[in-house]
């Protein structure tokens, strides 16, 4: 008689060797973590922005207003679900689903910590659901799918404001996904892999920059220091990727009512809202993994021998994530929304060219210099050159074209003479009478 045995993962077991119940447990924990983190981030954003604007913020529901986000979620859940006339019903309902599901899937390859032992069992597992040789490309691909939900939601709503919000969202996806992808190329060059767990392992050892043998400056092995231009470009691009202020052009409450969300209510609106905050956590977790050492403890906590073992790394990882979330909130409470032309100029004329130049410099250093000290020295010089070019490009004086002055005529201008209101004629612009006379002369000739 045979007995059913459950396989136990060993401390050195890799991915794909976990029992089914361990995989299910990790999926459930990640889902609960993201939902609770969203509720906390909404409350935290309200409290921080209220403090910046000298207001009180939520303080009634629960201690310090901690249950305010839960109360808002329950309100949206029991609110009447309205569907305007003339919408494409299938896409109108499908759009929130397309936005919310990829937001959860991206966390499948994010490492929260090293291999640990599950309490009350003899099973070991890594604090990561799975890993792929191209994990970073997987995150970017899945995150890009969510943007299509915004575009389809705006198009299917049969509303001008919603359609404009969807078009702006597609423009943001094209503009800032390119800059974000280019910012990650240098990380792949240095780590030698696109696997998230291997990139974290590559940032494990402390390094130092030698100024041509004069003196050494110790720095952490984080790529945020070694590849600082890439880090800055990624941080700017992730704000545009998640449609957050000052890049919240798809919503734009001032000119588009609420953009792609104008015709949504109840749980469909809540799913869009949930996806936005989970996407903030996703890009923050990816920035932590690729540039801030992932779950590894920062200095001086890293001096402690047990800082990077057990469940302590989860605390360091979440702490780094919350720093990026605070950066999001700080931007929203500080900066006004950019104009559309400013937004496009920043993406296409500054971020993408600087990214391409930085990739060329890093690839050259990696190809020519084989010694670690040589690479770090020249990377420091290259980073300074890229920063100088970016500053010069941003502050170059723009050539202003003089605005034409209005034509001074002896008789008063009547804007409603033709039945429709028209502006007065400008200098160099022929009036309607002149245009008619020229057209008559041309027909005679």
UniProtKB/TrEMBL annotation:
It is an enzyme of class 7 (translocase). One of its GO terms (cellular component) is plasma membrane. The chain crosses the membrane at residues 20-44, 90-112, 132-155, 176-201, 221-240, 269-291, 311-331, 343-365, 377-396. Its EC number is 7.1.1.-. The keyword Kinase does not apply. It is a multi-pass membrane protein. The keyword Translocase applies. GO terms for biological process: aerobic respiration. Residues 435-445 have a biased composition (Basic and acidic residues). It holds the Pfam family NADHdh. Keywords: Cell membrane, Membrane, NAD, Quinone, Translocase, Transmembrane, Transmembrane helix, Ubiquinone. Residues 403-445 are annotated as: Disordered. It is found in: Cell membrane; Membrane. One of its GO terms (molecular function) is oxidoreductase activity, acting on NAD(P)H, quinone or similar compound as acceptor. It catalyses: a quinone + NADH + 5 H(+)(in) = a quinol + NAD(+) + 4 H(+)(out). Residues 405-414 have a biased composition (Acidic residues). NDH-1 shuttles electrons from NADH, via FMN and iron-sulfur (Fe-S) centers, to quinones in the respiratory chain. The immediate electron acceptor for the enzyme in this species is believed to be ubiquinone. Couples the redox reaction to proton translocation (for every two electrons transferred, four hydrogen ions are translocated across the cytoplasmic membrane), and thus conserves the redox energy in a proton gradient. This subunit may bind ubiquinone. NDH-1 is composed of 14 different subunits. Subunits NuoA, H, J, K, L, M, N constitute the membrane sector of the complex. Belongs to the complex I subunit 1 family. HAMAP family: NDH1_NuoH (MF_01350). This is NADH-quinone oxidoreductase subunit H. It comes from Kribbella amoyensis. The gene is nuoH.
């Amino acid at each position: 008689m045979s007995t059913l045995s459950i396989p136990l993962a060993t401390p050195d077991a890799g991915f794909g060797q976990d029992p089914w119940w361990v995989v299910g447990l990790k999926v459930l924990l990640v889902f609960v973590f993201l939902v609770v983190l969203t509720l906390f981030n909404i409350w935290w954003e309200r409290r921080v922005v209220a403090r910046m604007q000298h207001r009180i913020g939520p303080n009634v529901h629960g201690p310090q207003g901690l249950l305010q986000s839960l109360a808002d979620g329950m309100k949206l859940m029991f609110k009447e679900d309205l569907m305007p006339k003339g919408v494409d019903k299938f896409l109108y309902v499908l759009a929130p689903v397309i936005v919310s599901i990829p937001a959860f899937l991206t966390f499948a390859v994010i490492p929260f910590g090293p291999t640990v032992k599950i309490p009350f069992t003899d099973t070991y597992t890594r604090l990561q659901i799975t890993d792929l040789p191209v994990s970073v490309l997987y995150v970017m691909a899945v995150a890009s799918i969510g943007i299509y939900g915004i575009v389809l939601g705006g198009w299917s709503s049969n509303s001008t404001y919603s359609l404009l919000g969807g078009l702006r969202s597609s423009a943001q996806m094209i503009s800032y996904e390119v800059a974000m992808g280019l910012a990650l190329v240098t990380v792949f060059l240095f780590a030698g892999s696109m696997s998230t767990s291997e990139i974290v392992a590559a940032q494990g050892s402390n390094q130092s920059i030698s100024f041509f043998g004069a003196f050494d400056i110790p720095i952490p092995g984080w790529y945020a220091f070694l590849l600082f231009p890439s880090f800055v470009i990624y941080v700017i691009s992730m704000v545009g990727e998640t449609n957050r202020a000052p890049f919240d052009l798809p919503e734009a409450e001032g000119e588009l009512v609420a953009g792609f969300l104008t015709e949504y209510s109840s749980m469909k609106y809540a799913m869009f809202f949930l996806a936005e905050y989970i996407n903030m956590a996703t890009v923050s977790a990816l920035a932590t993994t690729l540039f801030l050492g992932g779950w590894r403890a920062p200095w001086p906590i890293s001096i402690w021998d047990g800082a990077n073992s057990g469940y302590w790394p989860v605390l360091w990882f979440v702490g780094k994530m919350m720093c990026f979330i605070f950066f999001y909130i700080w931007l929203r409470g500080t900066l006004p929304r950019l104009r559309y032309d400013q937004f496009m100029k920043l993406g296409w004329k500054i971020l993408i060219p600087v990214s391409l130049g930085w990739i060329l410099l890093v690839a050259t250093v990696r190809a020519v210099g084989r010694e670690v000290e040589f690479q770090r020295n020249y990377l420091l010089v290259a980073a300074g050159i890229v920063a100088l070019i970016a500053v010069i490009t941003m502050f170059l004086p723009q050539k202003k074209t003089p605005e034409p002055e209005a034509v001074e005529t002896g008789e008063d201008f009547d804007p409603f003479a033709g039945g429709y209101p028209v502006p007065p004629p400008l200098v160099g612009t022929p009036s309607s009478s002149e245009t008619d006379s020229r057209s008559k002369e041309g027909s005679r000739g």
